[in-house]
Write a structure and sequence with these properties.
Distance between the termini: 41 Å
CATH class of the largest domain: Alpha Beta
Oligomer: single chain
Number of helices: 8
Number of strands: 20
Number of domains: 2
Bound molecules: adenosine-5'-triphosphate
CATH topology of the largest domain: Rossmann fold
Shape: elongated
Largest sheet: 6 strands, mixed
Length: about 375
Amino acid sequence: MRSVLGSGETATAPESHREPDDGLRLEGLTVRYGGTTALSDVDLHVPRGQVLAVLGPSGCGKTTLLRSVAGLERPSEGRIAFDGVELSEVPVHRRGFGMVFQEGQLFGHRDVAGNVDFALRMRSVGRSERRDTVTRLLELVGLGGYQDRRVTELSGGQAQRVALARALAADPRLLLLDEPLSGLDRRLRERLAVDLARVLDRNRMTGVLVTHDHDEAFTLADRTAVLVAGRIEQLDTPWRLWHRPATEEVARFLGCGTVLPGHAEDETIRCELGTVPRPADCPSGTVRIGLRAAGLRAAPAGEEAPIGQPRAVVRERVHRQDHVRLTVTVPDAPGLAPLEAVTSLDDVPHLDEEVTLTLEPSGTALITET
Ligand SMILES: Nc1ncnc2c1ncn2[C@@H]1O[C@H](COP(=O)(O)OP(=O)(O)OP(=O)(O)O)[C@@H](O)[C@H]1O
């Protein structure tokens, strides 16, 4: 890891003593609270210089995973190691990890500089070096000149930036981020995610980010693990998670409201609502197709609609920025739950109007595990 604070400041062992890909390793990590199993047999590796996002629905065990790595939770089974050193007997303050939580938890009685300076004083950094470092870190998080501001007068986004600067001031060998942006409004979250991604990347930080927001995970992390009910369902790149979810749970969590059985043969995959091209990596035979709203395009059913094209009836419609999102039902397939579809702003069908449906491959996901 390249130190945020310059050379010679990291708490890690010398480069020559470590494996090239060392970093954080979890092996068979299981955490139980009484009768509740919050994490079950989790294996993970985050090589140094990489950021891993842990994504999943509420209650799936994300915070438990982060707290276990931090040393705030004792595993029931399994092993946590950093740079080859097993951590079970290493207390929280000796792990050298930095943490940023949803609520930044700043010291309300200190100003901005005082909050960041605190972490430097804990490391016994000299006074003049501390002043320079505070200035540099505040500039890094986009708060240059905010030294004397009271933290009680900051916006939520500014407070999170100070929390990040304070975490970086501790020069952590691993940064643990627990929903660091979730208290903020959408636009600010996106801005801060981009800034945070830049800080993590420029400093080659090793990190674990916990979030329930896939955009945030994909923006900030090299790889993402999807956790469902305490188990890792898939650890992959954003493209594969989005287009090749390993399980129906992952597909549904990543926005596929409908999952249909399909049959792959020759050049196409056929399902109840039509066909999509068969990708080269798709085996022949039974597969499943996940449909996001953008995977179904609806158009008013004119007289010329081709025979055989599925017809549906509009039940709900919501205007989005550049399209209209519909909920439709398919009278010929009464077993099919209501579907989400999109239509353009040019020709918006009315409620109860008949529409034709076309599959849009870019809005579909392919599940090949059966
Ligand atoms: N201290 C505790 N005592 C008992 N059960 C707990 C405790 N902490 C968490 N749990 C349970 O463990 C499971 C995982 O909780 P955890 O907070 O890790 O999930 P999460 O994915 O972070 O959820 P959220 O996104 O809502 O914060 C849940 O069923 C939760 O109720």
